[in-house]
Amino acid sequence: MAKGGSLSMAPEVARDKASFMLQAKSLGFPVSNTSKRSFFMAQIMLRVFAAVFTLAAICVMATSSQSISLFGFTVKAHYSYSSAMRFLLVSDAVVCGFSVVSVIFVYHLNRSGSNLNNGYLFLHDMVIMVLAISGCAAATAVGYISRYGEEKMGWMAVCNHVGKFCNQMMISMVLSYLAFFSYFALAVMSSNKAMYQEGE
Asked: pTM of the prediction?
């Protein structure tokens, strides 16, 4: 008896919901404006976060340097001596620049009333996300060897001599990873939004 009652209640709930949506639209209430505004704000904030994180990572890396005296010789550690660190710096600069451009693009899309779940914008986010993780992965590999070494290959750890420099590099990499996760969140949001729109 309870099962039959619950089944009979389902169409009534659906009708009530449909009538509520119809009344809201007829009265001029923007039913989906809240979700659209939330999506727009999330898009803007994540892109701004990515730009700020990469800019901070560039500043930390560009100003990182340490000189030590080893066996009577002066040894200087600098990011430019590593191709992986240079690649991370360039990738961060590209991510930062395109993040700023994408913020302006998203803002104009929203102002014109266009769909924020734009295919070109999604492609842009995917390319930038791949570039960001490529730079992070390359720098992480070199950073790991610099900190822990690789005995089988005969590579010695150097961070026990230039600890300040290695710590600055680690901070720069963490900031770069945060920028990557910002774009990863953007990609997930856009995918979910596209699936939701297809289901409507």
From this structure: 0.76
